[in-house]
Amino acid sequence: MTFSTPCAFTATPRTTPHLLHHNCPPNIRLEEPLYQFTTSSSEFDKDYSKFQGDDDEDANARSQFGTKSYWDAMYEGMGDFDADEYSWYYGFEVVKPYLLDYTANDDAVVSNKKQDKSTISILIPGCGNDPMLIDLYNAGYHRLTAFDYSEGAIERQKSLLEYLPSGSNYVDTVELSVEDARALPKEWEQSFDVIIEKGALDAIYLSGDGNFEQSVEEFARCLKSGGVCMSFSGVVPEEVRRDGFDGKKWKWLRDGSEDLKAGCFVLRKI
Fold first, then answer.
1. Which listed residue, of 14, 16, 122, 234, carries a Cα 20 to 30 Å from 191's Cα?
2. What does pTM read for this prediction?
3. How far apart, in whole angstroms, are the C-alpha atoms of residue 60 and residue 199?
4. Short-list 256, 33, 214, CA closest to 267
5. CB 67 within 8 A of CB 48
6. Residue 270: band (very low, low, confident or very high) from pLDDT cuts 50, 70, 90
7. Between the CA atoms of 155, 159, 165 and 170, what dihedral angle is there, to the nearest 10 degrees?
8. Does the pLDDT at position 45 exceed 70?
9. Coil, helix or strand for 65?
10. Distance between CA 105 and CA 1 in Å, rounded?
11. CA 45 to chain centre
């Protein structure tokens, strides 16, 4: 497992993991997300100033959910969600059917239903403390790369991965990295078959003007031709999403606009 940026602290692994509890029932519908971000700037009154860096951009944010200081504080245990693990919007039981469908049909990059899932390269932007990496690995997807701009999130992912079954070879196949979604590594260009993001683009949109568009451009650069982007989102305005995932670069396979609260949007890079 590769860590491209040293993290500021080491999280202590739980002695009693509860990775099967993803804060949502198995029969959850797309109308019932785990949580919906808001564009209000007055949801919280906590002081996150100690987490702000020298090049802080939080002043441009539309909401606390768009500030790095909020997320850094959360992974320190000062936030409004579980600092150890939290499934954003939906658990893997909701994501999995879409992943299987759109990576095993004629309109997806992986058209052979019998292809070994361990060969499919998947990128997880804004991984946070979501246990989806573990779920993906246990489901047979082993070429996994996840990043977050918060070092605390990467520390949480390191600890979560320790709960994979003994003998798992994730050290050589799972890469964790501290990155900015607006400027991803050059070497990632055309490297991934699938991108799965849950709420990352929502937080990026809330961080300020232009950041959503920059990030989508980077997603397109990092996807292989024909690659699939799965976006679970409930905040980005429809016109902004349409402009970002424009028809010149993306084919819309599933429009989640009619899903209540948070939708599943699936797009293929042309």
1. 234
2. 0.79
3. 19
4. 256
5. yes
6. very high
7. 20
8. no
9. helix
10. 30
11. 26
